[in-house]
Amino acid sequence: MAQTNFYRETGIGQVIMAGLPGTSLDAGTRLLIEEYGISNFILFSRNTDKGPQALADLCGEIKAVCQKEDMEPLISVDQEGGPVKRLAPPLFPDIPSARDVVSSPDPKDAAAQLAAKTAELLNRAGINMNLAPVLDLCLEAEENVLKGRCFSKEPGLVADLGRIYIQELQQKGILAAAKHFPGIGRVKLDPHFERPQVTASIPELATDIIPFQEAMKAGTAALMTSHVVYQEMDRIQPATFSRRIAHDLLRNSLDFRGLLLSDDLEMKGITKHCHIGQAAVKAFTAGHDLLLVCSHQKDVLECMKSLKYALEEGLISTDRVGISLARRHGALKLTDPAG
Fold first, then answer.
1. Which one of 20, 147, 171, 253 is at 20 to 30 Å from 66 when CA atoms are compared?
2. C-alpha pair distances (Å), 105 with each of 90, 100, 108
3. What is the pTM of this model?
4. pLDDT band at 191 (very low <50, low <70, confident <90, very high)
């Protein structure tokens, strides 16, 4: 089987979510779509910094090329509000942070308004997935990686606000991806640069999971894990590679049936420890459906090469790929008002 047909015929390209370099559809991204069957993309400030019309044109280009290849695109962004928003002022309307929501007179109404404003902004741009809400508790990480990004240290309040946000966002046609399961509120190192270790007990971790359980009940389309080792759950592997967490806990014990996303595999919490191609295979076999490779197309191609090898050698089955593609299809149906 020719290489360019292999990715399309097996569907393995659709388990990658790729970044792209600029504000228009470049030749490299077009190649990823046409020859590798990649139809999941994540946008950053480098893709949005020419304003609303250029962004809408870019998303329209992605959609047109994907649909020409008989694929429906999934276009995502981190538009949390506050310190993390890729569509930022002055080119785009400002949106409040999680901290602003909690400090408002009516936090539940503020969470709904945040979701509604975000959905309006993303729908106008042609984006159909938001990598939010952050459901981590405001604990140690609130002083570093989560500063201004999480709602509260109280799991019940985080669960309530997350549920409201998810339902409002998805009712308006934008998929939610709650993060970072099973919770990074206790980390002291940033996974962008290091691989944190969490030593919390199982009862403590069960508390961290409460908002994610509520998100599942609310019908969140997706969850995202983290590059963190939870020693009481898996002493060796981070959640990204841990079948105990991604499959045994999340799928079997908690009965999650939606899409499971990795965090960016180019973070040093991963690349300091293994080759990115190996990371893609390990994350997929652990139970993830979409693997984020956010910056470099050469890394996307390395992941594709490793996934191809894993399929050919029987390390990954075509049935397992089919399960992830079915979850993706099910999520996309949530964006269809008629569906």
1. 171
2. 27, 10, 9
3. 0.95
4. confident
